[in-house]
């Protein structure tokens, strides 16, 4: 019996926990279905780009802030969205950083940027349909839940 082999696309992304006085900076993005998604600033790495460089670039376009002194917090990796059209092998890094500048997003998908008290962050996260959307997968939010509770782990396997 031969084993079926498959090649999964690799998705590399990096997001940054920007913290000010017990608040976490979240971006509001409009999803394809018209709903609003609250997420961490950051996003996909481009070909040949390090995860740290992707974090700096994406935070700038999504928030207008310049981040410096990136510090690694956690890595989340594994197969994501298996059996859907967005199936991939995910490598997602989370950092914290110093930041400066004014909130001024230039990413057309970002409809807002807001500081949210730690205790209110999880209430803004929407899980569930459509299932092929990674941002609504509860596993993606485990590192953030732990970060907000001060229980930081460096590695998460999906």
From TrEMBL:
Domain of life assignment: Bacteria
Keywords recorded for this protein, A-Z: Hydrolase
Residues in Nudix hydrolase domain copies: 9-138
Keyword Transferase set for record: no
Record PROSITE patterns: NUDIX
Keyword Metal-binding tagged: no
Cofactor section: Mg(2+)
One MF annotation (Gene Ontology) recorded for this entry: hydrolase activity
Enzyme Commission no: 3.6.-.-
InterPro entries on file: NUDIX_hydrolase-like_dom_sf (IPR015797), NUDIX_hydrolase_dom (IPR000086)
Protein name: NUDIX hydrolase
């Amino acid at each position: 019996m031969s084993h079926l082999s498959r090649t999964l696309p690799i998705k590399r992304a990096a997001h940054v926990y920007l913290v000010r006085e017990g608040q976490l900076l979240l971006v509001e993005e409009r999803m394809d279905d018209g709903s609003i998604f609250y997420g961490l600033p950051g996003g996909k790495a481009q070909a040949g780009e390090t995860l740290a460089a992707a974090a700096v670039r994406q935070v700038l376009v999504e928030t207008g802030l310049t981040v410096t002194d990136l510090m690694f917090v956690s890595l989340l990796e594994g197969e994501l969205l298996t059996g859907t059209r967005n199936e991939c092998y995910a490598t997602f890094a989370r950092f914290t950083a110093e930041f400066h500048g004014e909130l001024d997003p230039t990413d057309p998908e970002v409809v807002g940027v807001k500081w949210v008290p730690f205790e209110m962050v999880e209430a803004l996260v929407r899980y569930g349909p459509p299932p092929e959307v990674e941002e609504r997968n509860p596993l993606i939010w485990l590192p953030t839940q732990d970060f907000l509770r001060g229980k930081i782990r460096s590695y998460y396997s999906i």
